[in-house]
Predict the structure of Lipopolysaccharide export LptBFGC system, permease protein LptF.
Amino acid sequence: MKILYRYLYRKLAIYLLVIVPSFSFVAILAELVELLRKAKNLDYAAIFLYSVYQLPEKIYYILPVSMVIAFFLLARDLISSKEIYPILLNGVSLRKLGISLFIFPAVVSGIQLFNLEMVMPEAKKNAQDIYMVLKKRSKEEPLIAYNSWVTIDKRTFIYFSFFDLLKKEGRGIAIIRYDKKFNPLMKIEGNFFKISDIVYIRNGKLVTIESPTNINLKKFKEYRYPQRIDVESLKKLIKVKKPVSIRQLYKSAVIAEKFGYPSNYYWSKMYSKLATVISPLILSFAFYPLIWSRKKSNIVIMAVLLVTYWYSTAFLSSIAQSNIIPYYGVFIVDVVYILLGLFLFMRLKFSEL
């Protein structure tokens, strides 16, 4: 049986290696046509790099559909070549075959997760930077900053736990100043701060260091740090943090909730990304019973179900952002498709061939 499954896994892998690059090429080509139409700076080296950096995201969305097509082609191949008959005559039912084959989309879901967490964040950032260059636009300014260190001058550094750059206020600040030999002179910490002409800090402590043996600690309710900080210039020093991966979205949601910032967008996006990660396995299971039928109408049914899956997921994710349904409501679609697949899977028999 191991030889059989290795043979089938190899076939599925070959199908994916043909389908995914083909679809990716078409998707990139369509985007490049639109980009060239709008681009004000025709730098072909930058356009090539933009295409490369866009590939991980394209593959991320293409893989789930490609997995279904690969399963369909495998079934068509086994039926047309009559290879399915010796498999069935050796006591391997379609259900048993399916249970073993579902390992493959599970591995693909793992690849999806790796791509989303390790590759896409940096690739997405680089693609966005190149896009701004091609469109001759300035880079987007951040609206919020969190867990960020910023250099004010050669010897003064500021740390923000959370900083709303529109309101010019935030929570959790630390200011550290050093002498010419880079020995610490002073540290100010505060729970709340606001920046106008100077920095207003509330509920914190001031640590001054005159020598290693002479350290003074003073708590305060309100403190005015006299150095002027230009928030507009500060925006240029803070990198725009657009969360892409599940880990980044979770971190952004938790921090936003902690400091009273709207977190609906981050939570709904996180669950939507997670749904896309597991979609190769969900869709493979749901469509597996349909690929073994000779009915041509099943192809139409599969196409409709695929379109319905993606539009339903996107719709539920969008209304979750408005807090109409729980953030994890996007998984309702997965549950429905699992139940559909389970119902069809239990009815799957050799007679359907």
